[in-house]
Amino acid sequence: MLKIICKPLLPIVMALGLTGITTVAAQAAPLTQQSFQQVLQEERSWAGLTTRTLKVGDIEWTYSEGGDKAKPTVMLVHGLSGSRDNWNRVARYLTPYYHVIIPDLPAHGDTKVPAEFDLQIPNMVEALRRFTEAASINKNLNVAGHSLGGAVAGLYSAQYFFDVQSLLLIDSAGVFKSTQSPYLKDPTLLRDIVVTKPGDFDKLMKIAMYNPPFIPSALKQEQEKVMIAQADNTRKVIEQLIKLYGYYTPETFALAARAIEAPTLIIWGKQDKIIDVNVVPELKGLIKNAQEPVILPNVGHTPILEAEQLVIQKYLPFLQKAVATPNPFAGSAP
């Protein structure tokens, strides 16, 4: 039997992304995968979210949805090896004011794709576009992305600028000239942070978070099992990233970034070890409507869990202004 003993939520890392989880204590019986899923469901409910599914072509999407459908839509995109639950702590502050959609990306979380599905970022963006069309949320969309999800959100915003109202990038992946990160200079190192065996989860937390929290061992073990089960898909995505870094250059990345028209807010953890803060001025210089970036001290790669209240304090006023500003490209779709 599980007992919810406190809120707000306790973060759990998932590779370059994370999952936030309600703080729990296992009493009597050990934590099972079924009760672990119940904990996740409790957290989604606390954030004002419910689970939905939608089949689009050969992809069976699973996503969280919350808020009033009559209000502007915000779509939140998670990072590598993460899931929709990465965003629960942020979504809690959005659902009272906005319609919120958080999909599990292809081959992540509970979204199912064929074994041969192309996991390169451009194909994920195209699949995400088909999802937004099928869900009827493709117009006047406010897009936010964390880590790898930032690269997906950025490319989506560049390609579909006539439908994107605003963009939020949090510790976003990209091909940068100014990076000092070993993981960006040599993306093959990403292979070393895949959780494939017991103990890898602790190692990952120390890399992804500046000040990792205490997590009850039963909860940690179940999360680690989930990540080990997803390791093959994580490897596939990483191999595609390695290929991408092999043929994309900072110049080709810049072309895509310069095509972003939407007002853009950039938020970064100052102590990010995976995508270092040195790239922020470069990214801001590429995006024509980028606001002054927000740098969060004593925060690592995961501000959406390490400092979600600081993220929301900056994002809500930005979002309010963005949705009130007409998109000059609306209605100009090719």
TrEMBL record:
Signal peptide per UniProt: 1-28
Key words, A-Z: Hydrolase, Signal
Gene3D superfamilies: alpha/beta hydrolase
Every AB hydrolase-1 domain range: 72-306
InterPro entries attached to this UniProt entry: AB_hydrolase_1, AB_hydrolase_fold, AB_hydrolase_sf
Gene Ontology molecular function: monoacylglycerol lipase activity
GO biological process: acylglycerol catabolic process
Domain of life the protein comes from: Bacteria
Cellular component GO terms held in the UniProt record: membrane
Protein name: Alpha/beta hydrolase
